[in-house]
Amino acid sequence: MNFANRLKKIAIGTACFAILATGAGAWEQPSAHAASVSASATSAQKANAIVSAAKQLKGKVKYKFGVNNPAKLIFDCSSFTKYVFAKQGVSLKWGSQAQSKQGVYVSKSNLKAGDLVFFSVSKPGKVNHVGIYIGNGQFIHNTIGSNVNGIIISKLSSYSKRYITARRVL
């Protein structure tokens, strides 16, 4: 085979490879971007389901420190988040400190619905309370106070001095 024919075959092979590499073929594979978009949609759907489930438990759940009793809907703050996330197949440990080490860190300015938000409500600087960010600067949590025992929605800004960190587990 002479040099001109070899060069022609190389050029044709290179052109075919370029067409395949750009995805312009009948058997095109889904792109990494498409897979990422699909995973994001799944995370967003789970987050919406978690927020919805948490809101539906308002008025039904009672707070009791150190309790994880799904049968009677009696939880502390972290067993509540554990319960709600488990309904969407997301496994969380029991305990706000343990949950504060799961997933990945997310800054307060990048919070999304479904992120866990952590606070210090008794010992300054120490995580001892957790809630679920629901969007629009609000979070839902299980707590006890002078006029509340159960699920409430609070403004994140009302807890700004107590805020410690947030984690994304979806």
TrEMBL record:
<feature type="signal peptide">
    <location>
        <begin position="1"/>
        <end position="26"/>
    </location>
</feature>
<dbReference type="Pfam" id="PF00877">
    <property type="entry name" value="NLPC_P60"/>
</dbReference>
<feature type="domain" description="NlpC/P60">
    <location>
        <begin position="44"/>
        <end position="170"/>
    </location>
</feature>
<keyword id="KW-0645">Protease</keyword>
<dbReference type="InterPro" id="IPR038765">
    <property type="entry name" value="Papain-like_cys_pep_sf"/>
</dbReference>
<keyword id="KW-0732">Signal</keyword>
<dbReference type="InterPro" id="IPR051202">
    <property type="entry name" value="Peptidase_C40"/>
</dbReference>
<keyword id="KW-0378">Hydrolase</keyword>
<comment type="similarity">
    <text>Belongs to the peptidase C40 family.</text>
</comment>
<dbReference type="InterPro" id="IPR000064">
    <property type="entry name" value="NLP_P60_dom"/>
</dbReference>
<protein>
    <submittedName>
        <fullName>C40 family peptidase</fullName>
    </submittedName>
</protein>
<keyword id="KW-0788">Thiol protease</keyword>
